[in-house]
Amino acid sequence: MYKKGIYTLRSNEPLTPAVWRMVLEGDTQWISAPGQFVNIAIDGLYLRRPISVCDWDEGTITLIYKVVGEGTRRMAAMLPGESLDLLTGLGNGFDVTKCGQRALLVGGGVGVPPLYNLAKRLLAEQREVTVVLGFNTASEIFCREEFETLGCRVIVATADGSAGVRGFVTDAVRTCGVVCDYFYACGPLPMLRALSDAVPCSGQLSFEERMGCGFGACMGCSCKTKYGNKRICREGPVLTKEEIIW
Amino acid sequence: MVAKQAKPRDLSVVLSGWRLDNPVIPASGTFGFGREFQEFYDINILGTFSFKGTTREARFGNPTPRIAECKAGMINAVGLQNPGIDAVIAEELPRLRSFFHKPVIANISGFSIEEYAYCCERIDREDCVGLIEVNVSCPNVRHGGMSFGTSPDCAAEVTRAVKAVTTKPVYIKLSPNVTDIVAIARACEEAGADGVCLINTMLGMRIDVARRKPVIANVMGGFSGDAVFPVALRMVYQVARACRIPVIGCGGVSSARDVIEMMMAGATAVEVGAANLKNPYICKEIIEALPEEMERLGIERLSDIIGCVE
Questions:
Q1: B164: distance to nearest CA of chain A, Å?
Q2: Whose CA, among B110, B154, B164, B304, lies 20 to 30 Å from A232?
Q3: Which of B48, B39, B27 is nearest to A4 (CA)?
Q4: Are B48 and B271 in contact (CB under 8 A)?
Q5: Does the bond joining B199 to the residue before it have cis omega, within 30 degrees of 0?
Q6: Interface probe with A: pick from B30, B49, B66, most Cβ of A within 10 Å
Q7: Residue A4: how many CA atoms within 13 Å on its side-chain side?
């Protein structure tokens, strides 16, 4: 189920020069799984902005977003006390019940945030959680301590080698002796594809696409899978490794 | 103090003998088969809605990205993704009947005269279809609808072929991407169309300047949203004055005022398209706002204002 609601900004702060964390207060009852997203109406812009949910509790939603265009620029300029119109409870999200004992979570850049609540849930289910976070460079790293505080093993990879393992997340998975029997991933398409090839076990991957509505009406974000056409906003954004047609 | 009793307002309109509770109709392609919106509100408050454009075969449509944002609107190049007429009849319509208790508008598209006729003949047997809206104007399909809607002769040919296989009212949905929309509307009327619906989307394009590539994989797509309202209104006005058959107005409608403006220009009913995607409650909000707007403007019966602008 999904619904529209009005949310009030509690805080909105930069984590890195380009990545911001926004905490919103309001009704969160429609959010049912990590990896779901909200669709945010922004005054003066025609389409809503889909942003994945980083974390939520009874009264707040935490979003971590990268400033990449006009919509996210306007979001970053908002102050506590201001309000936003959100559709919440969108998308299928990650399924924690499919996971074995040892979970690998891999995030690239702004693909990292939806893994946070996922890690929380897997740890609550007594799973061992290894998190591999990929960034371009040290100054772009965020959320590392948050995952460590939860109790995850955290490995960072940077493309320029300025922090952690030099290279991509796949290099980190290969060189750091990561053992897993299920994986979850969110990040750029080339990363998802390389990871899917590199990790032998089954897993779930979260995809992006340009959306019109975010709730399945416009068919703008459709993709073909081995099990038929799916809407990234509705039957996705999370697809299983087995169904993806690369 | 007794609150001033508002006069009852009559919102009903009649399309070819079919009485709608109100003139508000979500447009094809923005409302699926109703399911996604039923989760937001009870869609039985609508006049009716026009279901997703349906073809003979199932279609995936165009490659993605197929959505681009614009100032005051959007471009889509979905390319008629739909499950095909058989699946619509076997799966979508029975599901729809479980939660929507009014007749629906069947939006039909095709790539040949035979396909239009085939689909309309199939849908003719469905009791829950109140009228057939024939899309001769979708600009997304390279070899498809566009050509039918851009020539009066082709539009008339489609109209005749469809009318021959159905007893349901047939409304032709017209493309604005033409030199003279009045000539095409008249050709449809002369060929037996029971009504026309206009406008479909306007052909548009955006470029990602950083990548120096079109935003849309298909390069061009259909532009819709607030920005097209004045163009749609002008065309509704022109066509309504030139034809005797009813006009369904469509294009950039997002408020009760827009609905009234469209009706004053000559529309008997009004479709709401892209606005549903940004605000899924927009049609509900428009229907709820109409009585108050009517009171403000001194309108007792909404159907009285149809084409009142000379």
A1: 32
A2: B110
A3: B39
A4: no
A5: yes
A6: B66
A7: 20
Tokens coding A6: 């009005």
Task: Name the packing angle between helices B229-242 and B181-190 (round to 10°).
Answer: 40
Domain positions in chain A: 3-90, 96-203
Of the partner residues A41, A46, A217, the one whose CB lies closest to the CB of residue B74: A46
The reply to whether A3-90 and A96-203 are identical in fold is: no
In whole angstroms, give the CA distance from residue A197 to residue B126. Answer: 48
What one-letter code names the amino acid at B20?
A: L
What are A50-78's pLDDT values in tens digits?
999 999 999 999 999 999 999 999 999 99
Q: Which residues of A touch B67 (CB under 8 A)?
A: 47, 210-212, 218, 220-221
Written as six digits, the tokens of B194 are 């029971």
Q: What is the pLDDT of residues B257-308, one digit of tens each?
A: 999 999 999 999 999 999 999 999 999 999 999 999 999 999 999 999 999 9
For the segment(s) A3-90, the CATH number from 2.40.30.10, 2.60.40.1220, 2.30.30.100, 2.40.50.100 is 2.40.30.10
Cβ-based neighbours of A44, under 8 Å, separated by 6 or more:
A74
A129 pLDDT higher than 50:
yes
pLDDT score of B39: 93
List the 31-50 stretch of B: residues with Cβ below 8 A of A: 31-32, 35-37, 39-40
Task: Give SS3 for B56.
Answer: coil
Residue with tokens 């061009």: B220
Task: Specify the pTM.
Answer: 0.94
B39 contacts in A (CB within 8 Å)? 1-2, 215
| Distance in angstroms (rounded) separating the CA atoms of residues B209 and B207 | 6
B189/A contact by beta carbon, under 8 A: no
Just list the catalytic residues of B. 138
Contacts of B64 in chain A (CB under 8 A): 209-210, 220-223
Q: Are B197 and B173 in contact (CB under 8 A)?
A: yes
Å between B209 CA and nearest CA of chain A? 13
Give tens-digit pLDDT for B175-232.
Answer: 999 999 999 999 999 999 999 999 999 999 999 999 999 999 999 999 999 999 999 9
- Nearest CA distance, A126 vs chain B (angstrom): 35
